[in-house]
Each structure stands twice: as C-alpha cells, then as structure tokens.
Design brief:
Largest sheet: 6 strands, parallel
CATH architecture of the largest domain: 3-Layer(aba) Sandwich
Number of domains: 3
Oligomer: single chain
Distance between the termini: 38 Å
Radius of gyration: 24 Å
CATH class of the largest domain: Alpha Beta
Helix content: 25-40%
Strand order of the largest sheet: 7-8-6-9-10-11
Shape: globular
CATH superfamily of the largest domain: Mur-like, catalytic domain
C-alpha cells in the first residue's frame, strides 16, 4: 500500500485535486486499466498510439482509488461524475515519477542502482538474493522511466532495501532514473558497444552510463570494474569507489566448477568468505562480484551475503540450462545480445565439457554503422575459441561467417533437429528482435 495521505499524494504528483474520493492511500500504482484492481491509483499515460487517459472512466468504474489524467481528461470525468479521486496534471508520467520519489523517501531505506552495458539484470538478481533483509527489486524489465517508478511504488512499507536496475536508451535517461530513485550506491557493470546508435559511439555509452555517478549523494559509493576502460575519465566524479574483478577491491580466487555450480573464495575490504553459486559461468562470477561489492558498500559482511547464494534465481532467457532429449544440453541465452555478452557466452560454451559445441546466433541489434564489423568480430571469436558449429539465423547473421545460415528461428530448429546431438551443448543467443526463443521452445517441446 502507498501509505500516504491524499494531500501529500497531490503535492507529490504536482497535480490539482479535481474530485475527492476515499480517505487513506491507494494500494498500488497502475497504468493498465485491464489489469487494474480496486484500490489502485490509475495513471492515464499518453502513448504514441493510445492515450491511457481514455480509460480513466473505466478505471473508476472498476473501483480505482483515483486517477491521474490531463486537465482535458479530468474535465470529461467530472462531467461523468465518476467516484474516486481525480488528479489533474499536464504530465501524468512526470506525476508518476514524482510520487515514486516521495514513496522512496517515506520508505527511508538504502537504494542500490544498477546499470551497465552487460550483466545489469543478473547483478540485480544476485543482489536481490544475497543482500540481507527484505529486498525489493524490479520484476522483468521494469527498468525504464515508467517501469522504475512503478517498481518503487510497489515496494512494501517494511522493505529494508531497494535494488533497482536502470536501462539506458539515450543521454539523460540514467540521470532521470537516478533523480527518481535517489540511489545511495550505484553499480556500473561495464561499458561496451550496446545501444551505440542511440548515443553515437562507445564513448557516448560511457558518458550516458556515467550519469549514475552524478546521481549519487556526497556519501554515496560507485561500484565499477577494476579495469573500467572508457568509464575511467568519469570516475573522478564518484564520491567513493569500490572496484571488482581481477586487481580490484573485491576479487575471487580458488575457483572450482562442477555440475552446474561454482565455488570461489571472495576477498573484500571487509574480509574474505567462501561462496557457493548455483551457476557455472565465469561471467556470472563477475556479476556476483559486482553484487558483493555493492553489498560491502552498503555495510553488509561477506558471511551475510554468502548465506544467501542458495536464493539466487537468474531471470529467464539468461543462460538457462535445459536437458534435451538424447543427452544434449541447451543454454538458452536469447534475452539479448551484444559484442560483450557474445564474447562471454562463447567463452563459456568453449569451456563446457561436451562432445560437440554448437552456437546458434542471431543478430546483435542497435550497433550503429559498425554493426557489420562487430558481427564479423564475434564470428572470429567463435572460431578462435573452438566452437564446432555456428548456425547463423537471419540475413544479418551472415556477418558471423557461420557454417550454416538459415532464414529464421524455425529453420535453425529444423537444422538442429536433423543432427545427431548426443553429448552436445547448444548455445542459443541473439537480440530479442531475432526471436530465438522460438528455437529453444522448439527444441524443448514448449512451442505452441
């Protein structure tokens, strides 16, 4: 419940009260009238094709605690004499963000903000599991200027910590999300050629991600790689810095991998501890080190965090391992792809104990003018690390120089189904626009 009095809600929204409703606060915020429940506060957000304010009347009829709409929509609702609070503001989205900031301040708990070109969702998943207390975090991809405030507003009153993934889709995006969330600790996982076409260059990516640094308070802490690369020119703006990875403040040694799990001794400024993780990928160990470094910045001990590794559940389509008929293993990593994550995934595939290692690769999106070069580079990496068979999916995947090129995901599934795969490990990876989840669904028998 968003336990705020209506007058404070109105102030936080920057809105005028057009009509009063029930006392007390709303249960949660909603932007979808179809999924609205009685007691929700509905935000009629204008969209490219549909104005959510059109459905404010339906929301009130469905038992909404109140609605936030533009003045024009509010006037229509007053004529209709609907029940519930009606708040009028020229910018309902900004109102949603303002209420989220107000609720974050009422909660009064530490906030961990996470961004980066690769790994931010996995760092969020790991942090949510290993950090002690009642941790509230984004679900699915609620990490944008709309999703992040909805995440904050869904945080229970008894939360101890907010872990918030932050997406970047251009300059000013991370700055806005930091303004809304007011993080105490920020993690920038890494910088790579991701969303390059939105910011012009990889240097532009670093600049955009570094907006998180400027959103930290004077007593805040930034967590970054020990080798920060293009982020380096921005680090002098960090109020304090903890690094992770080889040569960093938080690093791992004594790594042992067996049967889908990984153990390592993690060294930190607060001492060392043995961790046992429910994954085997080295790049996820890096993600875990970032989460542990954030925990150190928040004041938690390595022992406290080690106790939570059994709760780690990585989000779907991110390195999911599935046993296939005939003794093969599928690594379903098709949520997204870019040159950095492709390199990591291919390196992990090469390290798998297998009779045959197969990579099914779709396009990498949003790479700008150098997209062809990046695809060629990834194809070279696949050959360099010894992948036995590369299947490219779609015309853009020709840039990988694959052994086999198919038109679409169904063609890839057919190609794999026609091969004898005992002892094989099959990686499926590409940007979401490639639709490679259909390959995984076909191989596992989960297709419609």
């Amino acid at each position: 419940m968003i336990d705020l009095p209506p007058d404070l809600i109105a102030d936080s929204l920057g809105a005028q009260v057009v009509q009063q409703g029930a006392s007390g606060g709303p249960t949660r915020a909603s932007i979808d009238s179809r999924a609205l429940e009685p007691g929700n506060l509905f935000f009629g957000l204008p969209g490219e094709r549909v104005d959510g304010g059109e459905f404010a009347g339906q929301a009130l009829d469905a038992g909404a605690w109140g609605v936030v709409v533009t003045p024009e929509r509010a006037a229509e609702l007053v004529v209709a004499e609907g029940s519930g609070w009606i708040f009028s503001t020229p910018d309902p989205l900004r109102a949603l963000q303002g209420l989220a900031t107000a609720w974050r301040r009422v909660l009064g708990v530490p906030v961990l903000g996470i961004t980066g070109s690769v790994g931010k969702t996995s760092v969020k998943d790991i942090a949510r599991a290993i950090l002690p207390g009642r941790v509230h975090a984004n679900e699915q991809n609620l990490n944008t200027e709309i999703g992040l405030p909805l995440t904050i507003l869904s945080a229970p009153r008894d939360s101890d910590l907010l872990v918030l993934e932050m997406a970047m889709r251009g300059f000013g995006q991370i700055a806005l999300l930091a303004e809304i969330a007011e993080p105490n600790v920020g993690v920038i996982t890494c910088i790579g050629p991701v969303h390059v076409e939105l910011v012009g260059s990889v240097e532009g990516v670093a600049k955009a991600k570094a907006e998180l640094i400027d959103g930290l308070p004077e007593d805040g802490t930034l967590v970054a790689q020990a080798d920060p690369g293009l982020l380096t020119p921005h680090l002098d703006r960090a109020p304090a810095l903890i690094t992770f990875g080889d040569g960093g403040d938080v690093f791992a040694d004594g790594v042992e991998v067996s049967d889908g799990s990984l153990e390592a001794t993690v060294h930190t400024p607060a001492g060392q501890e043995r961790f046992s993780f429910p994954f085997s990928e080295r790049h996820n160990l890096e993600n875990a080190l970032a989460a542990i470094a954030a925990g150190i910045a928040l004041g938690f001990s390595p022992a406290e965090m080690s106790a939570g590794t059994g709760r780690i559940r990585l989000s779907s389509l991110r390195g999911e391992r599935v046993e296939l008929p005939g003794g093969a293993v599928l690594i379903n990593d098709c949520y997204n792809a870019n040159p950095v994550s492709m390199r990591a995934a291919l390196g992990n595939l090469a390290s798998e104990p297998a009779e045959t290692r197969i990579a099914v690769l779709g396009l990498m999106g949003e790479l700008g003018e150098e997209a062809e070069d990046y695809h060629s580079e990834v194809g070279g990496i696949a050959r360099e690390v010894g992948i036995d068979l590369v299947i490219g999916v779609g015309p853009e995947a020709a840039g990988y120089g694959p052994d086999v090129l198919v038109d679409d995901p169904s063609g890839a599934a057919a190609e794999l189904s026609g091969r004898d795969r005992p002892g094989a490990v099959v990686l499926v990876k590409g940007s979401r626009s490639a639709g490679l989840e259909a390959v995984a669904e076909a191989l596992t028998g989960k297709a419609d």
